[in-house]
Amino acid sequence: MIQARGLVQTFRSREGRKKTEVRAVDGVDLDVAEGEVVGFLGPNGAGKTTTLRMLTTLLRPTEGTATVAGFDVVTQSEQVRRSIGYVSQTGGAFSSARAGDEVVDHGMLYGMRGADATRRGKELFEQLDLDGLWTRMPKNMSGGQRRRLDIAMGLIHDPTLVFLDEPTTGLDPQARANLWEHIADLRRRRGATVFLTTHYLDEADHLSDRIVIIDHGRIVASDSAENLKANISGDLVDLELASAGDVTSAARRLGSMAEPGRGGAEAVEVDGFHVRARVAQAGRAVPGLLADLSRADITLESIEVHRPTLDDVFLTLTGRSLRDAQETTTDGAGPGEPAPPATPALVRQEQ
Amino acid sequence: MQFLRESFIVFRRQLRMNLRNPAWVIIGMLQPVMYLFLFGPLLKPLIGQLGVENEYTFFVPGMLVQLGIFGAFFAGFSLIGEWREGVIEAERVTPASRTALLVGRLVRDLLQLLVQAGILVGLGYLLGMTGSARGIVFGVLLTLLVGGACAAASNALALTTKSEDVMAPVINMVMMPVLLLSGILLPMTLGPQWLQSVSDWMPFKWVTDGVRTSFSGDFARDPMLYGTAWAAVLFVLSLWWGTATFRRENA
Ligand SMILES: Nc1ncnc2c1ncn2[C@@H]1O[C@H](COP(=O)(O)OP(=O)(O)O)[C@@H](O)[C@H]1O
Ligand SMILES: [Mg+2]
């Protein structure tokens, strides 16, 4: 459904006198098969929206080619537009217009007859739990309702390929969980191919068959969440010691079984009373470690073993955790992008 | 055909949103009324110099152009709000013609102008304005042309700047010389020669003169020709610029 080769987008921006060229997307190759749900994961400013805007014909690629739904995005942009639905990061319904009117007008711009667009719109409202909101203005809707309205607009002409840009950013956890159901329904009920961007690890993990990770405009990985995690060597073993005097000795013992550190980091990380390291097959190794520590009279306050998470995948691939990447690129937020919520982003998932 | 349909969908959506806002309707109606009743009387003592029997014969055409230009200059501001909410992007992702996205909005602005022109001319008549019916119709058409040009330019500027804070000073900077050099409020012939020469460079002065001449029914005079030509040129250029901004990928 999507095939992109060497997509590049450069933006010229000016700060004062200084002109800079930003390579927002830097040679992206993508292949998405029919019926696939692909999560496009990356920190803010990684180039997700820019890639999506090129694939949806809103932005002409500086370099590279892409075919979407069988049509070239540059030379056959009109056919591409007919075949796809796009729900942008900011949505598309005007806050002081009536929801139903916006949806119907949108459908009519696709060439639908008014009556057809109305019937289809009402059907979508029902499916997306928007019953009774036909004449409500988006400004009087909850965040989740607004987002579902955006999705209804994107689906009005029954596209077989749907692009969703950060569908749940800014929503509370309940609204997110609810929206996930609806996104999963896109394929379950309609057989649609879905390409969604997110900077939430759990979202990519939960929704997609395959995760494509982008950082600084480049694709750094593309695989199922399972495989991505399986390729990470070792589980994280986190020891909390009862006394500070034991830290060095415990670190040496843990270090003897640990995997080498990543990106030049030490294999063993010491943090106050905590000693951490990656250990292959930790479930088998830990009993021996415990016996070793107790022989040396080292008392543990606690021990935790974490299976690898997507954040670990990101760390392995880029040398930074997604959380850090997020903090250093907060200026990458698009216009009118709601501030990221404090809690649910990047929660580490233990399995 | 498809283009007309798409323009109509965009126009209907804009009109629907505007009509739901009573402030828009009331201010739109009150503007011409206030100008006529609060500014018109100031011209009465000048009747001799203006070369007309009734001050409104001079004043109504000028007001018409003023409404056409200035009302339309502000048309772009609502577009910035729409852009910020993602409406423009959502429209651009449909197969609809980019020109239709602009033209639908222009038609809304022109409809507003037409209603205002109706009020202005009607009240002007009641207040003693004289003029030829044919000339008035043509004068209003000329105003719509120049109003459409300004509205298209305003929309283009809005999508280029994407910020009210950047756009407002630009509009103000353009508006000052237009207002002062077009002879909208007072005829440029009242001024010294140098000021008249400067105003010859102001396209809107020719349009104002053209509309005024048209109202008098005197189609054969030069200002008619220049005014019409300028209005047409401005319209074509602005429409081209406006469409280009809607088409541009980065809008
Ligand atoms: N219109 C633009 N002009 C200049 N720079 C832009 C523009 N759009 C995006 N960028 C820059 O390109 C980079 C990627 O942005 P974006 O694709 O929005 O990232 P994401 O969606 O992954 O958060 C960022 O550094 C951003 O500042
Ligand atoms: Mg984005």
Automatic annotation (TrEMBL), chain A:
Bilayer topology term: Peripheral membrane protein
What keywords are annotated for this sequence in UniProt? Antibiotic resistance, ATP-binding, Nucleotide-binding, Transport
Molecular-function GO terms, alphabetical: ATP binding; ATP hydrolysis activity
Give the PROSITE patterns listed for this entry.
ABC_TRANSPORTER_1, ABC_TRANSPORTER_2
- A Gene Ontology biological process annotation? response to antibiotic
Q: Which Pfam families match?
A: ABC_tran (PF00005)
* Cellular compartments per GO CC: plasma membrane
Question: Per the annotation, which location comes first and is thus the protein's main one?
Answer: membrane
Q: Where is this region: Disordered?
A: 325-351
Q: Which cellular compartments is it found in? A: Cell membrane
Domain ABC transporter residues, every copy: 2-241
Q: Which SMART domains match?
A: AAA
Which family is annotated?
Belongs to the ABC transporter superfamily. Drug exporter-1 (DrugE1) (TC 3.A.1.105) family.
Protein name, as recorded: ABC transporter
From TrEMBL, chain B:
Which compartments is it annotated to reside in?
Answer: Cell membrane; Membrane
GO MF annotation list? ABC-type transporter activity
Please tell me whether the keyword Transmembrane is annotated for this protein. yes
Could you tell me which InterPro entries the record lists for this protein? ABC2_TM, ABC2_TM_bact-type, ABC_2_transport, Nod_factor_ABC_transporter
Q: What is its main location?
A: membrane
Q: How does it sit in the membrane?
A: Multi-pass membrane protein
GO biological process, any: response to antibiotic
- What are its GO cellular component terms? ATP-binding cassette (ABC) transporter complex
Protein name per Swiss-Prot or TrEMBL: Transport permease protein
- Source superkingdom: Bacteria
> Keyword set for this entry?
Antibiotic resistance, Cell membrane, Membrane, Transmembrane, Transmembrane helix, Transport
Keyword presence, Zinc-finger: no
Q: Which family does it belong to?
A: Belongs to the ABC-2 integral membrane protein family.
Q: Where are the transmembrane segments?
A: 21-38, 58-80, 110-130, 136-158, 170-190, 224-242
State the organism of origin: Knoellia aerolata DSM 18566
* Domain ABC transmembrane type-2: start-end pairs: 23-249
